[in-house]
């Protein structure tokens, strides 16, 4: 169950790393109410706007690679045998280079991300993604 | 349906503004898998850690008020008559003063927030909250 959702989550990063616009488009629910928050940015609403932002970002990144840590997966509703929503949080350790113009384009940066996936037939698709930069100081919690 | 979720969402800000720790505790699902990302911070996991962070923040803020704009509510699964999850995104225009030591304590700041609420009997409770600072430049979208 959550394994299928994790496959979608992994495919998302594959799409960004390889600049695969078609793969990225296949991973999102096509709906005017989906949303995406890039680090430091205001929310984008609707799959058309979300995919446009990723297309621009991927066109402007020469090289980008994500190393995911602290990945946590929860299925909702809690304690339901037939969950309809999966929430995945993770830390994105990002290595990038090339022409940096996109909102998520920076070298050796760290972001945290909350992704919301919904069931789509046998698989899962993105409904929402919220990524934010991690300040080096002032965290309420440390990774120890 | 979504009105009840919005009542919980409003009560969350009431709790922060009035420093009502008990109200805040009543608004979250008590589960080790809930999560909360304060602006610039790494995720806190589990209701105990989440509530501790809010208690510390509220104890250290002299005055804080939230003016919410661009609030958008979606129920999941999409097009389901009996949704089990509600996602609320909004922009928090924050006015604060006093002893500023908490992660969400700053004067005249702006953040964007994605909240995930799940059904709890007749009402709704917080499962996840992800807030992030908004950079004044570099947004992929503008509010016009």
CATH topology of chain A: Nuclear Transport Factor 2, Chain: A
Strand % of chain A is 35-45%
Could you tell me which chain pair has the largest interface and how many residues each side has? A-B, 49 and 49 residues
**What's the multimeric state?**
homodimer
Share in helix of chain A:
25-40%
Poorly predicted spans of chain A: 138-144
Concise account of the structure shown:
Chains A, B: InterPro entries: NTF2-like_dom_sf, SnoaL-like. Chain A is α+β, with helices and mostly antiparallel strands. Chain A is built from 3 helices and 6 strands.
Structure, explained:
The structure is a homodimer of 144-residue chains. By secondary structure, the first copy, chain A, is an alpha+beta fold. Chain A has one domain: Nuclear Transport Factor 2, Chain: A, CATH 3.10.450. Chain A has three helices and six strands. The first copy, chain A, has helices at 2-18, 21-26, 47-60, and strands spanning 35-37, 44-45, 63-76, 85-97, 109-120, 123-133. In chain A, strands 2-1-6-5-4-3 form a six-stranded mixed β-sheet, covered by helices on one side. The longest helix of chain A is centred in the N-terminal third of the chain and has 17 residues, at 2-18. Chain A is globular. Chains A, B: This is SnoaL-like domain-containing protein. Chains A, B: InterPro entries: NTF2-like_dom_sf, SnoaL-like. Chains A, B: Residues 7-135 form the SnoaL-like domain.
């Amino acid at each position: 169950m959550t394994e299928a959702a994790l496959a979608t989550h992994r495919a998302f990063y594959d799409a960004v790393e390889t600049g695969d616009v078609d793969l990225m488009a296949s991973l999102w629910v096509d709906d005017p109410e989906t949303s995406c928050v890039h680090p430091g940015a205001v929310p984008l609403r609707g799959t058309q706007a979300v995919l446009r932002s990723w297309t621009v970002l991927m066109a402007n990144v020469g090289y980008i690679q994500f190393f995911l840590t602290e990945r946590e997966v929860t299925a909702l509703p809690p304690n339901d045998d037939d969950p309809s929503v999966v929430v995945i949080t993770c830390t994105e350790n990002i290595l990038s280079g090339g022409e940096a113009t996109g909102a998520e384009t920076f070298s050796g940066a760290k972001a945290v991300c909350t992704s919301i996936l919904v069931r789509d037939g046998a698989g899962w698709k993105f409904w929402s993604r919220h990524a934010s930069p991690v300040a080096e100081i002032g965290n309420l919690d440390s990774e120890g």
